[in-house]
Design brief:
The structure holds 2 protein chains of 2 kinds. Chain A is mostly beta strands. Chain A contains no helices and 11 strands. In chain A, the strands form 2 sheets. In chain A, strands 2, 4, 5, 6, 9, 10 and 11 form a 7-stranded mixed sheet that branches. Chain A is globular and about 40 Å long. The termini of chain A are far apart. By secondary structure, chain B is mainly β. In chain B, the strands form 3 sheets. In chain B, strands 2, 5, 6, 10, 11 and 12 form a 6-stranded mixed sheet that branches. A 4-stranded antiparallel sheet of chain B has the order 3-9-8-7, with no helix packed on it. The chains are: A mainly beta, B mainly beta. At the A-B interface, strand 4, strand 5 and strand 10 of A face strand 5, strand 6 and strand 11 of B.
């Protein structure tokens, strides 16, 4: 039982490049979310989804796109990477009972 | 909107000493409150949670936290710190589909 799996673990992009951060869960949770973690700022919500076909914006959505075609997967897309998107990205899920989140191990992204 | 403040960016304690990490929250209703721990290079792990009922909650690894509504606080405590507790600790408040995290407190444990 892997829980939440994020790939890749590390990535370096050039400004303007695009990429997709992958997140997969095997917990059958409807809720999935993406956070970015920056020093001194904690974790900030980018986008979230409450089920297949349903997504919504969080606190810092600009520059990121998401879609949710299956319960298991919730990819995060950067269409044109910027240095300000250098960060550590975490995917998280939770069950319907608010018993806390389960986090993936993160993707460290550097945009040069 | 809900928010969380962790006043201490970095705390250093000696091994065996007691620990208290502070957390203050802002939330319009009865909050769901959480403490998470993050070891270097890892994701966040849930330490404990508060939803309702007894205001003193026990978590994993010997941690506890006390919810004080009058002070809008949810401080994390441990009676005797171990070297393996060195990590970053995050307080979070959640309701609906938006959990808000504090900026974190980094704990250093001196031998």
């Amino acid at each position: 039982n892997a829980g939440v799996t994020q790939t890749p673990k590390f990535q370096v992009l050039k400004t303007g490049q695009s990429m997709t951060l992958q997140c997969a869960q095997d917990m059958n949770h409807e809720y999935m979310s993406w956070y970015r973690q920056d020093p001194g700022m904690g974790l900030r919500l980018i986008h979230y989804s409450v089920g297949a076909g349903i997504t919504d914006q969080g606190e810092v959505p600009n520059g990121y796109n998401v879609s949710r075609s299956t319960t298991e997967d919730f990819p995060l897309r950067l269409l044109s990477a910027a240095p300000s998107q250098t960060s550590v990205y975490f995917c998280a899920t939770r069950g319907g009972d608010y018993y806390g989140y389960t986090f993936g191990s993160g993707t460290r992204l550097t945009v040069v | 909107a809900q928010s969380v403040t962790q006043p201490d960016i970095h705390i250093t304690v000696s091994e065996g000493a007691s620990l208290e990490l502070r957390c203050n929250y802002s939330y319009g209703a009865t909050p769901y409150l959480f403490w998470y721990v993050q070891s270097p290079g890892q994701g966040l792990q849930l330490l404990l949670k508060y939803f309702s009922g007894d205001t003193l909650v026990q978590g994993i690894k010997g941690f506890e936290a006390e919810f004080k509504r009058s002070q809008s606080s949810f401080n994390l405590r441990k009676p005797s710190v171990h070297w393996s507790d060195a990590a970053e600790y995050f307080c979070a408040v959640g309701g609906g589909n938006d959990m808000r995290f504090g900026a974190g407190t980094r704990l250093t444990v001196k031998p």
